[in-house]
Here is the input.
Amino acid sequence: MNMAEGLYRTMRLIRRFEERAIELVHAGEIIGGIHPYIGQEAIAAGVCAALRDDDVITSTHRGHGHVLAKGADPVRMLAELTGRATGLNQGRGGSMHAADFSKGIYGANGIVGAGGAIATGAAWAAVKEGSDRVAVSFFGDGAVNQGVLLEAFNLAALWRLPVLFVCENNGYATTLTVAQAVAGSITARAEAFGIPAVSVDGADAAAVLDAARDAVARGRTGGGPSFIEATAYRFDAHHTWEHKARVRYRADEEVAAGRSRDPLDIQGVRLDAETRAGIDADTETLMAEAVAFALDSPRPDPAGALDHLYATGLRGRDGIGLLDTAVR
Amino acid sequence: MARLSYLKALQRALADEMARDENVCVLGEDIGVGVNNVTTGLLAKHGPLRVVDTPLSEQAFTSFATGAALAGQRPVIEFQIPSLLFLVFEQIANQAHKFSLMTGGQAKVPVTYFVPGSGSRSGWAGQHSDHPYGLFAHVGVKTVVPATPEDAYGLFLTAIRDDDPVMLFAPAGSLGVRGDVDMDALGPVPLGVGRVHREGTDVTVVAVGHLVQSALAVAEQLADQISVEVFDPRTLHPFDWDGLAASVAKTGRLVVIDDSNRMCGIAGEILATAAEQMRLTVPPKRVTRPDGAVLPFARELDLAVQPQQDQLLTAVQEVYKSSR
Here is the structure.
């Protein structure tokens, strides 16, 4: 499979995964809702196409795209979102914590900006081991105001660690615009620490891939961290809850203009129509399987609600004090 | 038997583990020069990839350790003051601690968070003198407070080898403690196993950290009137409830002394568990810092807030008398 097809296939998978997931939210099969990634697919697809299986990523609360692009099984991922025992995390993580450590996916993360320092530590571990693995931290424009992320930039630059910081600038931190939230420029935050920074069109997967390849090559060869700001438009809500709350913060015209640059079309026109239709059909089949698998999968046993709380298997006391006659 | 100081025991434990396992590394502020004397000599021996002097970036280097641990390292972080833990509560309680469960057991985070000098160091005032171990026990992070040199050695070893995040509080009041130790018998001490330092039949005194020495002094002082059993939990989570129950079964009376704040503190948890599940012949007592205390600067104010040996003595006498 050539790279143009691969990028499109990844994006198509993310898009259809998200659309099916939104249906399942509305059907009540996914509780808690999701943060849709629709419109930003080219960023995950482009960056992860530059990575190896053993490279590491940390993701965000809007993490489905990153997790899928890095190679997690979409079938088990959907089972995770529907809270099934067969899910990637055995139903313990859900949308905001989906992870697959066998693919270097250190998980989506519910705290904005939290993954930056974790990825930096993973990059340091690679250097300490003498490996040329790299780590990538995805985060949104809102995260550049989090102190811990800026501290992580400093450590990564100071110690020339192979970490790639990818800021997905979708224009909004929940409902607050970048103009309302970020003083100065986003790339300047990285440049202030001596980290090479570029801005790319985050709707164009090929452009993202080019930038990511440069950054990853720099990381693998001891050149230290890199920063990519990828601008994109979030087509859907910050969270599926928004539709119920009827929150309004974007003009219809703005949303229409944003949606007019669909990353799937931008990449899709680089393929012949037959190839594109074939990928679309494959994706439909895969997602139909995923939905069926998820909904047919068993739910976790409540008796195991605190399984895995400790890696060592430690069990604490239960919470029923008076009724718990055994001293444990 | 050789004399071993608590501080030297900590230093030896870290040095031994770093020599034994190349994945063990240490990071923190001013550790290259060994400002607390625990990391002294390690930089020269192991180099800057295993002894990492960090910038003042507590939040970043705490999650940095999480990332390194997820990638197979076993980092030890030395925090120079206990209050820095308030800065990194997100990184420990909400990130490191939650990885194992949230990933369905895919991830483990073997990081040791180590505070050599927790609690009052006399004259360090409000922002350098807390003992926030209860916070970590509450959220479920394994939490250890050794009281003696051999326990400091053994529990530090165990903390580093544990596959989960572990907090290790070395009370400032313990750092200078020296004891006669059989060096050949030094070895790992399991988490969740308390220690009876002195057997007794009338009153169980549970003492945390450096207060074990106060409890032993009180027991000695009262020896001809009241038989005091001194129980040191050594780890606050997991807690040795069986060990405590065995002691209370003998004495039926309980006093807890703990140098952290009263409200929602570990002493309250010990009393509550004893009340629920053990046979107490009289109401228990606790000697702690006051509710919500902030340690004042002046020596007499500082001491006024910390639980004192004479307060423990009075509490033990009252608990003993009330049952006669």
